Amino acid sequence: MYVRGGVRDRGRAAFPRPPPRRRPYRVSDRMTLTSLMPGGRRSPSPALLLLVLLAAGCRKKDTLATLERVPLPAPASPAATLSIDSLGRAWVGDSARLMALDSSGRVLARVPVELEGAPRLLWLDSARLVLRVPGAAAIVDAAGKTEALRRSGAPLAQDPRRRWVFTATGNGSVLGLDPRSLAARWGWPDAGSPVSALAVSPWGDRVYVALSGSGRNDVPSSIEVRDALSGRLLSAYRTSAPARRLEMAPDGTLYALVGGDVVALRHGRAGLGPLWHRGFGGIGQADADELRVSPRGERIAVLARGKELRLLSAADGKVLQEGKQSPRDVAWDAAGRLWVLGEREIRIVR
Predict the structure, then answer these.
(1) pTM score
(2) β-pairing verdict for 271-279 and 206-211
(3) How far is CA 84 from the centre of its chain?
(4) pLDDT per position as a tens digit, 242-256
């Protein structure tokens, strides 16, 4: 028993000591998703915890139905490209070279490329390779010697009848290039806006021209449909953002990558009209970079380079499969199988 301040108490002071003052929080404190609470307890920070939960909820498993795995002779860089030719060979472009592989990973051909950047094989012209590198298109022979070169970053689209290669100028004039020399042979009047993407109908009668839009010239972003012979404007479809990619299906359906959406378009009485659209991006999701339509037009591969891949149904845009193993590039073969280029292997997906 003791007395404090004139008051007798058994076992405790009548006026207990106040709780210790908590040190103010400093940025230098080693804390991640917790903050100090009275009494030294830790509790989750609501805002940061919400972001973590959302990101975790958006993260899905890899569901690609892999049939085969093709080993690469050397690791592929994040900028590596992939194309499949008519003989079923996989052409991997990386670090100023092209390399052809079979389904077992055996190297069938190596073609050095004199131009900088990772080349992409566009198509074969007899023994010559038509390829694309950042800022240029070229034709090279089997030894890698450059036979034709066009310095331009404008999109390219091949005429199905192989009469022309379509491209554009900075002011939106569509040009017809000689497929043997890449020299311009004719051009249509300027559209007043840069061209962000090109596509040609399966029958070669229409050219689809995606305009980025120009405030200075009062030209909105849109997809123009033009007659392939005369360049006459047939119709135009306004887009909410510039179409970064255009891909044609064998049945004439046009697929466009507009902002963060994949849009399916088809011709009607009033011109192009939407069938469906599928949004991409957002928290925990990557924006798409590329579109690839299967040979029969039944599926669409939507690629976010180095991040994820989604296979969509062409009928309604439903997600069928997803790949999460940092895909570099994708390409369809004639049998309708999807080849997915990774860092150390190519996955062949059913």
Answers:
(1) 0.81
(2) unpaired
(3) 18
(4) 999 999 999 999 999
